[in-house]
């Protein structure tokens, strides 16, 4: 396989994952705005932080109201992570790597692109937002499903999965980091409605509210949420889960290619280190410091993968 | 069933009965409901869009990916008609390759006085860099698309030889797939020769043209200018169906005297490169130094026999419109036989007598730029307004050497499906020819392009043309 093709697959799936994650972020922000209108401006600001585009938003001189933020995240071409930009980039990459995709996967991506660019041609009215967000998630599921059902489990699949899980891990870590302070034990207003909102937002942003309740019952506490999203290997958006998948896919590649990979060595050690001392150790050493380091590690791992497989040269 | 037309209609005899090759189709069609068929053809469009069979039109930002309209009425050719065409095409393609070898070596045809020296020496399509270079296996044009038009039952003319990088083969394949999906019953009633193995035939043909130094199974690659190229869909489609890598210039570089592509496991040498990049951009060290689409050093590797480039650089001299008018002589010179396929009579405007004739008869003629393609910059005399004629007359007088003129041919028609039923439209045909050192392989079928506008003779997709599935009937 060409190095460029591997890189194209990796990024195609990163962008698909990103569009889905952004849709969830908007969903969570929108829900807060509807149920707790007082805290909504702050909430939109933190949604922008999580998406990593607050600076850009400020430059565009917009106000922190729902309509502006939503439009910026959904369809602003000036936002390199907007859903429209992401789906365009995903499809562009898919076109580049088309020879590596089954017809089903290509058609799913192409159809998603056609449907979503059409839907996002004009600003989305508030009344239509839930429908549009669910459409975005559905399109993403369509691509994932057709990939799962039709692609060979070879290096092509591995690169697609690596892109997915690096992006997902990055996303979950950001969500946690933007709100890390509400998870700290030192945060005193425990039990106040504000905290509940914040906690709920975190869980909603990763579509984990229902799973969390199933596992923990009514007992919602910040440490439990952090543990769930960082260390629970059953939760498909947790850092641990993503790290395991990354290691798995890299080790398939190592076996397949019969060479030792620097990226696998690093991924394995990161996986072993993550939460070796349990959630208490993470809190003791500082949650924010832990997440900052995690984001740095992910970026480094991305670079190593890029080099190991000659994406660019 | 069909409107009356003064032109030769391939489906219908003047008395309204179906011509023999269309008998099976006509039978089926009589039992169909037009409304239902129109609905089906809408489905075909959705199918094409979803598959991504689009082409990019330069200079049209808002519609940068467009569909070529597809018409569901097939273009049918009998086995006997095809047999004649096939012999003619084979002869012509053989002559083209012999001509190319000669023109880049001893130039016997010029010495023999059969074509003028200036025609070659002053032609931009002639690449001095190819003088004395013999491609691996002696093949210059691995893939040729011969454009044919028809004016009567036995009257076929070659309109153009596409010997550089002919495109459109993906439409031949996808049109057939679409018809198979939409009307399977047609294919169980009528024996139509298969085209779907074209990608495998192409791969086999390219592999057979690998350089002598190749060890093991030849590694074939397709070189594309990238996703913004108008034919990118076709490049990826072919790579996918041939099971070969689709590379861009920046994926490749010179490694140990070979051209190699950067894979996830390191650099891997390419034996045969089917390039869909023009000569000019192929190698910045040899041709246009500003090209970022090519591979620096590929021409040196080529000259030393380290890679096969398909088609060979410099083949454009064979499909140049100024050379075209000499094709009957060229065929005779190299094969010793009369050309089986006719040329369209052509006036070379560079010759004063011809120019005078053309200026006198401008409103009856089709005038083309010698180096033009895609239907751009041409004049269709009978369809042009007074103003257009006057403007063209000026251009023609200013640079006569830049133009050739041909009579307006009474192109045959094949009906398309419209809301009002079948309606005749003009068509052409591009069969695809594969050349390897051991054989010439012509896929039974090709791309039928159809001018969708009533009365129009311009079939180019960039100018409102569509396509049809082309059937060659079984023996």
Write a brief caption for the model.
By secondary structure, chain A is mainly alpha-helical. Chain A has helices at residues 3-35, 40-51, 54-59, 66-75, 83-96, 103-119, 129-150, 155-178, 180-183, 193-205, 209-216, 222-231, 239-257, 262-273, 278-285, 287-308.
What this model shows, in words?
The complex is a heterodimer of chains A (313) and B (475). With 313 residues, chain A is mostly helical. Chain A contains 16 helices and no strands. In chain A, helix 1 packs parallel to helix 8. The longest helix of chain A is centred in the N-terminal third of the chain and has 33 residues. Chain A is globular. Chain B has 475 residues and is α+β, with helices and mostly antiparallel strands. Chain B is 32% helix and 22% strand. In chain B, the strands form five sheets. Chain B has a five-stranded mixed sheet with strand order 1-21-20-17-16. In chain B, strands 11-3-2-18-19 form a five-stranded mixed sheet. In chain B, helix 3 packs across helix 14 and helix 8 crosses helix 9. About 1% of the residues of chain B have low confidence. Classes of the chains: A mainly alpha (313), B alpha+beta (475). Chains A and B meet through helix 1, helix 5 and helix 6 of A and helix 2, helix 9, strand 5 and strand 7 of B.
Strand fraction of chain B equals 15-25%
The level of helicity of chain A is over 70%
Number of strands of chain B: 21
What overall form of chain A do the CA principal axes indicate? Answer: globular
Number of strands of chain A: 0
How many strands, what sense, and barrel or not for the largest sheet of chain A?
A: none
Mind telling me the C-alpha Rg of chain B?
23 Å
Main sheet: strands, sense, barrel of chain B: 5 strands, mixed
Assess the beta-strand content of chain A as a share of residues.
under 5%
Class from secondary-structure proportions of chain A: mainly alpha
Radius of gyration of chain A: 19 Å
* Count of helical regions of chain B: 16
Poorly predicted segments of chain A: none
Mean pLDDT of chain B: 91
């Amino acid at each position: 396989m060409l190095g460029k093709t591997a890189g194209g697959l990796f990024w195609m799936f990163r962008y698909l994952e990103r569009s889905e994650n952004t849709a969830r972020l908007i969903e969570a922000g929108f829900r807060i705005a509807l149920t707790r209108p007082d805290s909504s401006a702050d909430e939109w600001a933190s949604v922008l932080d999580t998406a990593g585009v607050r600076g850009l938003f400020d430059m565009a001189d917009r106000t922190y109201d729902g309509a502006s933020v939503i439009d910026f995240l959904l369809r602003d071409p000036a936002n390199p992570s907007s859903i429209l930009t992401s789906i365009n980039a995903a499809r562009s990459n898919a076109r580049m790597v088309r020879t590596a995709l089954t017809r089903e996967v290509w058609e799913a991506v192409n159809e998603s692109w056609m449907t979503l660019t059409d839907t996002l041609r004009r600003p989305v009215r508030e009344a239509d937002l839930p429908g549009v967000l669910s459409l975005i998630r559905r399109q993403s599921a369509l691509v994932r499903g057709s990939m799962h059902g039709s692609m060979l489990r070879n290096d092509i699949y591995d690169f697609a999965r690596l892109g997915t899980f690096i992006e997902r891990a990055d996303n979950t870590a950001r969500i946690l980091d933007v709100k890390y302070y509400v998870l700290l034990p030192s945060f005193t207003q425990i039990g106040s409605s504000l905290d509940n909102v914040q906690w709920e937002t975190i869980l909603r942003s990763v579509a984990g509210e229902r799973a969390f309740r199933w596992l923990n019952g009514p007992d919602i506490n910040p440490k439990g949420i952090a543990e769930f999203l960082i260390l629970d290997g059953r939760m498909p958006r947790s850092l641990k889960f993503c790290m395991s998948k990354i290691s798995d896919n890299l080790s398939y590649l190592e076996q397949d290619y019969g060479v030792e990979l620097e990226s696998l060595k690093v991924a394995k050690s990161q996986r072993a280190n993550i939460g070796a001392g349990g959630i208490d150790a993470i809190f003791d050493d500082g949650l924010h410091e832990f997440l900052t380091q995690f984001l740095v590690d992910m970026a480094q791992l991305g670079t190593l993968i890029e080099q190991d497989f000659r994406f660019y040269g | 069933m069909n409107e009356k037309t003064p032109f030769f209609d391939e489906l219908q005899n003047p008395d309204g009965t179906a011509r023999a090759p269309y008998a099976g189709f006509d039978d089926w069609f009589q039992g169909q409901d037009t409304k239902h068929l129109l609905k089906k053809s809408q489905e075909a469009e959705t199918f094409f869009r979803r598959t991504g069979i689009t082409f990019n039109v330069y200079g049209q930002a808002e519609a940068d990916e467009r569909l070529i309209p597809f018409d569901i009425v097939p273009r049918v050719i009998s086995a006997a008609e095809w047999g004649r065409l096939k012999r003619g095409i084979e002869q012509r393609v053989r002559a083209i390759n012999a001509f190319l070898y000669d023109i880049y070596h001893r130039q016997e045809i010029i010495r023999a006085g059969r074509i003028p020296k200036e025609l070659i020496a002053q032609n931009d399509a002639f690449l001095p860099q190819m003088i004395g270079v013999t491609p691996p296996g002696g093949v210059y044009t691995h893939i040729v698309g011969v454009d044919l038009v028809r004016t009567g039952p036995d009257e076929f003319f070659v309109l153009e030889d596409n010997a550089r990088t002919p495109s459109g083969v993906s439409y031949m394949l996808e049109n057939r797939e679409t018809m198979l999906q939409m009307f399977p019953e047609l294919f169980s009633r009528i024996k139509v020769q298969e085209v779907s193995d074209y990608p495998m035939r192409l791969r086999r043909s390219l592999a057979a043209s690998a350089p002598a130094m190749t060890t093991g199974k030849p590694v074939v690659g397709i070189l594309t200018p990238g996703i913004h190229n108008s034919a990118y869909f076709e490049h990826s489609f072919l790579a996918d169906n041939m099971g070969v890598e689709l590379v861009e210039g920046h994926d490749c570089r010179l490694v140990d005297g070979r051209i190699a592509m950067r894979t996830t496991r390191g650099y891997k040498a390419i034996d045969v490169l089917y390039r869909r990049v023009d000569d000019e951009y192929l190698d910045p060290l040899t041709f246009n130094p500003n090209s970022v689409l090519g591979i620096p050093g590929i021409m040196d590797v080529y000259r030393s026999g380290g890679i096969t480039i398909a088609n060979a650089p410099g083949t454009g001299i064979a499909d140049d419109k100024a050379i075209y008018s000499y094709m009957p002589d060229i065929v005779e010179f190299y094969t010793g036989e009369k050309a089986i396929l006719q040329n369209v009579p052509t006036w070379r405007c560079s010759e004063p007598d011809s120019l005078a004739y053309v200026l006198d008869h401008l409103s009856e003629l089709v005038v083309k730029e010698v180096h033009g393609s895609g239907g751009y910059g041409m004049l269709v005399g009978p369809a042009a307004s007074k103003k257009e004629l006057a403007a063209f007359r000026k251009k023609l007088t200013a640079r006569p050497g830049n133009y050739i003129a041909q009579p307006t041919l009474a192109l045959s028609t094949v009906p398309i499906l419209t809301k009002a039923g079948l309606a005749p439209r003009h068509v052409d045909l591009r069969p695809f020819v594969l050349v390897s050192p051991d054989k010439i392989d012509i896929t039974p079928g090709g791309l039928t392009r159809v001018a969708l506008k009533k009365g129009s003779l311009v079939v180019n997709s960039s100018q409102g043309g569509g396509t049809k599935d082309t059937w060659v009937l079984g023996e």
